[in-house]
Amino acid sequence: MDDLITWLRGLLDEDERVARAAAECGSWRLEDEWAYGLGVGVARTTAPGFILPEQWDHIRRHDPASVLADITAKRAILDEIVPALEGYEWDAVAERSTTERLVRLLASAYADRPGYQEAWRP
């Protein structure tokens, strides 16, 4: 379980680094069909045509400030539940504790990231 927690905290650190770098450029906005990360340049959908309202809504919801708030919340959850796992021993026969399952569920959102192990699936 320690390796999963270490891996997850490392991902949160990396996501925070990227979001903070993006946040230095300001918030994101839409002008006509172009989505701007202020000071960074122009982002445009790879789909043909213009950015659709539902695409822009997704981009806006993942503004660096929103990502940083999400990271803060996930760290707070880990800080609350990880102490309950200290000294916890899980064997193949025992049912996973709710606490362990919560850590696995948090990590499952990153299953597409390098280093994720199938054994961590909830």
Sheet/helix structural class:
mainly alpha
Q: What number is the mean pLDDT?
A: 78
What percent of residues adopt helix (DSSP H or I)? 40-55%
- H/I helix tally: 4
**Percent range for β-strand residues:** 5-15%
Shape: elongated
> Within the largest sheet, what's the order of strands?
1-2-3
Low-confidence runs (pLDDT<50, min 5 residues)?
32-41
Instruction: Please tell me how large the radius of gyration is.
Output: 18 Å
In words, what does this structure look like?
Mean pLDDT is 78; it is low at 32-41. The two termini are 12 Å apart. A hairpin with a 3-residue loop joins strand 2 and strand 3. With 122 residues, the chain is mostly helical. It has a domain at 2-26 and 63-120. It has helices at residues 2-23, 53-61, 64-81, 98-108, and strands at 28-31, 34-37, 41-43. A 3-stranded antiparallel β-sheet has the order 1-2-3, with helices on one face. The protein contains 4 helices and 3 strands.
